[in-house]
Design brief:
Shape: globular
Oligomer: single chain
Bound molecules: nickel (II) ion, manganese (II) ion
Radius of gyration: 16 Å
Number of helices: 5
Order of helices and strands: EEEEHHEHEEEEEEHEHEE
Number of strands: 14
Length: about 230
């Protein structure tokens, strides 16, 4: 069975699988490119947050309170949302996994930093592997290329969402190397074009992935694709 992925800009996307709407890193109201998206209409049964930076958490509290979605993140970020009155949270730490509905969700290594918008400690940054009835996929959050990525090959990933904007995260060449380490052919590009320092040539990026025998998917903001 297919999964559906809806892209909301930057690193925010939703994966619809097994009747769930898994929403990652909601950052809509502060994203100038996502002005056509109404965060109050985004469905979510789970909200997965890779790290504490504002461009990954901005709309999470409001969406969690409206939808009663469970906020899944690291222990520190889960506690921060809990203190804000978010009813349901799940705090993992690197290498740990938990059952979330029909999915096994694992919080995996990301090489980055993590601080919440109010200056609170945001724990260690991470990415997620979600493994469910439709197969496994990965959302890398913000990360550098790291050899730990070869550990994800064992999941037989159907697709991976990888940052390609450079400057704060991997750029295109490192994302290609990451996909090769993970053994994944289908990559959804995230964390690009939102701000001047992460603006890239998307045509060149797609060509570079194709040359490596990989597919770079860049859905438009608001677009839903089958994956
Ligand atoms: Ni970040
Ligand atoms: Mn970021």
């Amino acid at each position: 069975p297919a999964m559906e992925l809806t892209y909301y800009g930057h690193s925010c996307l939703s994966v619809n699988a097994s009747g769930h709407d898994l929403l990652f890193d909601p950052f809509i109201s502060g994203n100038p490119l996502a002005s056509g998206i109404d965060p109050e209409r985004i469905p979510a049964t789970e909200i997965l947050i890779t790290h504490g930076h504002g461009d990954h958490v901005a709309d999470a509290e409001a969406i969690a309170k409206r939808t009663n979605a469970v906020v899944v993140s690291n222990y520190e970020i889960a506690g921060w949302f809990s203190a804000k009155g978010v009813r349901s949270t799940l705090g993992l730490n690197i290498g740990g996994s938990a059952q979330v509905g029909p999915f096994r969700v694992k919080y995996v290594t990301a090489l980055h930093s993590s601080q919440l918008p109010d200056g609170a400690y945001g724990g260690n940054p991470g990415g997620f592997v979600v493994n469910g009835p439709e197969g496994a996929f990965h959302h890398a959050g913000d990360t550098a290329l790291t050899m730990d990525m070869q550990l994800l090959k064992a999941f037989g990933l159907r697709f991976a969402c990888l940052p390609i904007g450079d400057h704060f995260t991997m750029g295109v060449q490192d994302a290609i190397a990451a996909a090769q380490l993970m053994g994944v052919k289908n990559v959804v590009g995230i964390h690009y074009n939102t701000f001047p320092p992460i603006t890239i040539d998307t045509k060149a990026a797609m060509a570079a992935f194709a040359e490596a025998g990989l597919q770079l998917l860049l859905p438009a903001i608001g677009e839903t694709i089958e994956i």
